[in-house]
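Sharing a chain and its predicted structure for anyone who wants a worked example. Both blocks are below, sequence first, tokens second.
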Amino acid sequence: MSEFANVSVNLEANVYFDGQVTSRAIVLADGTQKTLGVMLPGEYEFGTEVRELMEITSGQLDVLLPGATEWQAYTGGSAFDVPAAATFSVRVQQITNYVCSYFA
């Protein structure tokens, strides 16, 4: 999917790591909430409150998921799940665009 139709967009960006990671919250017509974001090259650690699905739309990054001992590579067109109440790390190799979906 290259676009979402009939959405509301939060005009204020979420800005993390001194602007190296940014996202905007969107709400789909059915009430589903997602964020659309961009990560610049670097290494970052994130925490989750609920289960998340991270869909990589372009770019390249390595991910260390909770409980894993090895980094996994992801590129545009791939996705990974992160459990609720967890911490995970990413090493962004090139500018990466993503869509994050949340599951309560």
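Comments welcome. DSSP finds no helices and nine strands in the chain.
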